[in-house]
Amino acid sequence: MTDNKIYFKFDGKKYSGVKGDTIASALLRNNVKLVGRSFKYHRPRGIYTCGIEEPNALVQIINEFNEPNVRATVKKIYEGMVVKSQNRWPSLKRDFGSINNLLSPIFSAGFYYKTFMGPKGFWKNLYEPLIRRTAGLGKPPREFKSKSTHLHHNVDILIVGGGLSGLLAAKKLAGTDKDVLLIERENELGGILKNSNKVKSINDQKTSEWLEKTERLLKNSTNIKILKNTTVTTYNYSNHLTAIEDRSVGIEPDNKKSELVLHKIRTENTILANGHIERFLSFRNNDLPGVMLAASFEKYIQRYDVVPDNNPVIFTNNSSTYSLLKLLIDRNCIPRAYVDVRDVKKIERETLDLLEAHNIPFYPKSEVEGCDGNNKIKKISLRTKKNKIIKIEASMLCISGGINPDIHLFTQSKGLVKWDEKILTFKPEKSFQKTITLGSVSGNFIFKKIIDEVNQKLNFIDGVNDIDIKIEVNGSEEFNIKEIWETKNNNNSLWSKSFIDLQNDVTTKDLTQAIREGFDRIEHLKRFTTNSMGTDQGKISSINALGIVSKLLKKSVSEVGTTTYRPPYNPVSFSAIAGRSTYEFYDPERKTPIHPWHLKHNAVFEDVGQWKRPWYYKKYENESMNEAVQRESKQVRESAGILDGSTLGKIEIKGKDALEFVNMMYTNSFTKMKPMSAKYALMLGEDGMVKDDGIVCKINDNHFITTTTSGGAANVLSHMEEFAQTEWPNLNVYLNSITEQFATFNISGPKSRIILSRVFNNIDFSNHKFPYMTFNTFDYLNYKVRILRASFTGEQGYEIYVPPKYALTLWERIFYYSRDVDLVPYGTETMHLLRAEKGYIIVGQETDGTVTPLDLNLNWMIGKKKKDFIGKRSLTRSDIIKGDRKQLVGLVPVDKSYGIEEGQHVIEDKNIPSQIDKPIKMLGHVTSSYFSPTLNHSIAMALIKEGNRKIGSQIYVSTSNMNVIPVEVVKPNFLDPENKRLLS
Amino acid sequence: MLLIKCPYCGERDQSEFTNGGEAHVTRPKNPEQVTDREWAEYVFIRSNPKGIYYERWVHSHGCKKWFNAVRNTSTDEILLTYKIGETPPPIKKFQNTLKSPSGEPDVGSGNFTVKKP
After folding, report:
1. pLDDT tens digit sequence for A818-867
2. Neighboring chain B residues of A432 at a CB cutoff of 8 Å
3. Closest in B3, B34, B84 to A725, CB measured
4. pLDDT band at B116; cut points 50, 70, 90
């Protein structure tokens, strides 16, 4: 055994466990019972279960990026693991937060909702930080590194659970032509055969021998694949399930390998053989370290060879604890007492014989009233048949409140469940999908019936044969459960607690109170009390809550109903969901061909969709954005500037009916437009609201190229596709995105013509030969460029379209020819400023999906003679033509030294009362605002009510320091309204 | 995740598709001639039934083709898909499909996973 020793640390102290131990089994091996503090009251908590259902023993793994809320009952130890307990300060034994337990009478259900109501600002600054400090579980991880991948499976049959019934199903399917995937949560197959000694022998062999043989058989079948350490977390529509495989069980995760694998499984039939979960019982201090579920206690002995306590007290309401009793006696551990709520007549002979033969104090028709102790159980108090309280000294208490089929996945699949009065629990009634349940999940708790169930339920599958096995069990197969949810409390103090949800610190008193306050629907009650809303989702307790509530409401459990089971079944790490889609792979960055040049010239980038666009260029180290933008804008107006516009969306439209299609998509008329000319065009939705804008270039009636906004390219293309395919499939038109086929440069400024004439010295750029809004394609060196005379700055300007391959050389060439002209590279911020000076809109800034072209005073862009286009009819709807809509205007501060803030409210009244009782009348808001270096004052655009009629008047704009500044309403065109610069 | 049959590519995961709202909402032939109310019906109003629903989908991460589907909105089952332009199957054809996962009422929602006694 010594070779097998593994050393790990818990709360700074070194412990040893053996290979295969979970943190919990290793701690129990070292007799550590106290492992954490509870969520709300900071009560001492221990290990309650032996698996995924654990509500209490949550720990933080320090050497795995501080991974929080790890179940100690699941996570396997490895050499050098560093584990810390959670939610305690300064130490687990002396926790300051346990003062909450003293204050607990005021922390009842709905406490937060009722208490932290005001005054204003207290929530954000005081209550929330305070609650976050004291309530809660683990601390968030320090770092995140995804070490997971996704795998897809398409199978015929998925078997969830490799216990007895899952293995029998697999055995039946072995050798058929069905693709079968068998998923087991633990690191070994076997389920109940490994967890308990209930099954004595199979086919006259030891269960371990039968297991080995079966596993070998399955491994040799080519049609069966087995995944271990894998938990199915989600059961979706269309038989789509997801499962998480832990590939670092018992080893320290390696950064280079996948720690977790998310399996996405699509299957024809799903076999759920995922077993059952034992439930607990409510009594006074049922959360004290030392209380453990009976089946879990048995599992620690059977699977991990750890006896948590030599002389526990057993408390039950059913016959499933017989196997634990027998196992303990076989190991010479004599329970201190056996407490059964049932009458002696209801208890099987085998149990009574064992108790008698070993002189075990036996209390039939009795119950555990509560237990006491400081940080662990010292005394257990019983209420006997004659209603007498007696106290027993013991340090552990094993409880069983019954068995719940694990219907979580079944209900996720939308299957219908029904309350069974005999076994007092919900069990599957009717599948919604192709789902089959086998074994205890289907409510069949009798081993000898399993083989019939498997044969009967799977015989519809082609090519299967009946199988047969002989199962011998220890004891009888009776269950004989008696209904009990909570025992009678003998302590009426305000501080006495009997828990219904251990993880969220919900007590049975909270349920009573919630019902008293009117939350008598189970879904409301759950949310008000937070019952079963922890990471364990109340796996051992949610049915108990239904039981208690049904008694309080004097209804049957069926009438109370269950709350909705929602995925995931088990907490899923974000890193498993993310898989490889992290950092740059999550949202890819798109870079233009000029990107390296931008980097070299100290561009600061802005994200536009996925694109990286230069926002501004830093000329020197400490240049601020404002300084850079002022410098760039000034220089464009004085000499020339160049902008990398490669990100603009470009769509090619071809086909016999291209003209008709473009006429429908945009507001403008393109019929009479000359070939090789361009138009600034607006695209509307059917609701008449501006959707996008761009330049439409007509090559001929059968061939158009349009540009879109950088962020809207994909949407515009799919909008066009939708209409082309669904509304007018008869039109002959083909659409193609050519955004990445061309890099685009926008050169503008008074010197732009000089620069271009030097670069392309064979082209005549004169106004006469190359007028505004025309374009042409030219041979240049060994490739073609398309040049369009257009401008978004109001200056003389050109757009150059060039294949990306040649773009960077051409860009550098342009700078080479501009050495003496002072050509400035400018970014998006300067572009925004320059267009604002001209009153040009930006879709998404001046518009927000509620703005029509009429609101923007762009009536001139609407083809009046056109019979129809998308959105046209909406422009004459009564609500659109009424006069008091918001319209786009310009604003200039009356005192030119003031600046206007973007996004501020525009108001009529200059006085803002210090105490605001009623809403202040708001005219609209500022959509864009800049300081114009050319005009030397602030300019702004705003959407305001009846804006057109207000031109010339004085109104007010609010400021962020609760002030107002007077502004004059002007037409939104601040510079060169005659367009002399543009057309020069 | 649903499994959706694209009429052009076959069965694919839902993540490859985008829903496009109700199908067979025809755009008025002469928009100028319809009343505000009729136009608003076309632009804004959709039927949103609980049960059989004819809707449009696009195989956006695939062939990019639009197509129509018949879906039971209470079970999320896609009962049939067909190409644009094909005649929609009559609603009668789907009357025998299961109305809801748990036999809940035709109107209203809520998860009724428990069979009443």
Report:
1. 999 999 999 999 999 999 999 999 999 999 999 999 999 999 999 888 99
2. 75, 98, 101-102
3. B84
4. low
Q: Is the pLDDT of residue A137 over 90?
A: no
pLDDT at A247: 92
Distance in angstroms between the alpha carbons of the first and the last residue of chain B:
32
What class, spelled out in words, does domain A2-102 have in CATH? alpha beta
Is A729 close to B85, i.e. CB distance below 8 A?
A: yes
CATH number among 3.30.70.20, 3.50.50.60, 1.10.3880.10, 3.30.450.20, domain A148-277+405-466: 3.50.50.60
- Which pLDDT tens digit goes with each residue over A26-44? 999 999 999 999 888 889 9
| B26 → chain A, closest CA residue | A727
Distance from CA of B94 to the nearest CA of A (A): 17
Q: How many CA atoms lie within 13 A of A155 on its CB side?
A: 25
pTM for the full predicted model: 0.88
Interface contact B88, partner A, CB < 8 A: no
Question: Quick check: is B73 in a domain?
Answer: yes
Burial degree of A267 (CB within 10 A; 0-12, 13-18, 19+): buried
CB-based contacts of A130-134 (< 8 A; 24+ apart in sequence): A134/A42, A134/A97, A134/A100
Mean pLDDT calculated for residue range A124-148: 74
Q: Does domain A280-401+478-490 fall into CATH 3.50.50.60?
A: yes
Instruction: For chain A, give the percent of residues with pLDDT over 90.
Output: 82
| Per-residue pLDDT at A586 exceeds 60 | yes
Cβ contacts of A874 on chain B, cutoff 8 Å: 39, 43
Residue A917 burial (CB < 10 Å; 0-12/13-18/19+)?
exposed
* Cα–Cα distance, A151 to A196 (Å, whole number): 33
**What is the assigned CATH class of domain A595-645+742-835?**
alpha beta
Q: Which positions ≥6 away from B102 have C-beta within 8 Å?
A: A414, A416, A432, B111, B112, B113, B114, B115
- Give A617-626's long-range contacts (Cβ < 8 A, gap of 24+): A617/A825, A617/A826, A617/A827, A625/A829, A626/A931
Of B2, B43, B114, the CB nearest to A558: B114
**Beta-carbon separation of A558 and B117 below 8 A:** yes
pLDDT on residue B115: 59
DSSP H or E segment with residue B71: strand B66-72
Residues of chain A with CATH 3.50.50.60: 148-277+405-466, 280-401+478-490
Structural domain that includes position B88: 3-94
Measured between CA atoms, how close is B71 to chain A, in angstroms?
13
Q: Cα distance from B111 to chain A (closest Cα, Å)? A: 7
Residue of chain B whose Cα is closest to the Cα of A730: B85
Q: Where are any strands of DSSP class E within A171-259?
A: 180-183, 199-202, 205-206, 224-227, 230-236, 240-246
**Given a cut of 60, is residue A513 above it in pLDDT?**
yes
- The CA distance from A694 to the nearest CA of chain B, in Å, is 24
The model's pLDDT over A671-682, given as tens digits with 9 standing for 90+, comes to 999 999 999 999
Q: B115 and A416 in contact by Cβ < 8 A?
A: yes
B102–A729 CB contact, under 8 Å: no
Mean pLDDT, rounded, of chain A: 93
| Domain topology for A649-740 | Alpha-Beta Plaits (3.30.70)
How confident is the model over A468-478, as a mean pLDDT? 92
CATH 3.30.70.1400-classified regions of chain A: 649-740
Asked if CATH classification 2.40.30.110 holds for the domain at A883-984, the reply, yes or no, is: yes
Q: Residue B111 pLDDT more than 60?
A: no
Residue B30 located in a structural domain: yes
Write out chain A residues lying below 8 Å of B112, CB-based. Answer: 561
pLDDT number for residue A1 = 45
B9-26 pLDDT tens trace: 999 999 999 999 999 999
- Pairwise pLDDT comparison (A415 vs B4), residue with the higher score: B4
